[in-house]
Amino acid sequence: MAFRVEHCRKATEFFIKFNNGSKAYLQYAELPNRVLDFQHTVTPEDQQGKGVARVLVKEGLKYASDNKYLVQPTCWYVAKYLDGSSATDEEKQLDIRHKL
């Protein structure tokens, strides 16, 4: 299943709206020195286990890369993704934990 990820800079979130009106999202904050703090992911219960959070994280990382940001993975899911084997080397290079 393909998900359409949208980005709202004003709300500082990447999100996916579902037909039933629910929404999954990745919230972030912009920190000094071009760092995005990926703070929180939420997936509606009926969408869990379908790769929704992973799609949101990948889109957030793509945005960070395209716009020359590093990422602070405060959210446990983002940290787990970046620490796992699914993350590309390019995505892992965005992780500020590896720059300290």
TrEMBL record:
It comes from the Eukaryota. Pfam families: Acetyltransf_CG (PF14542). InterPro entries: Acyl_CoA_acyltransferase, Gcn5-rel_NAT, GNAT_YJDJ. PROSITE patterns: GNAT_YJDJ. Residues 6-96 form the N-acetyltransferase domain. Belongs to the NATD1 family. This is Protein NATD1.
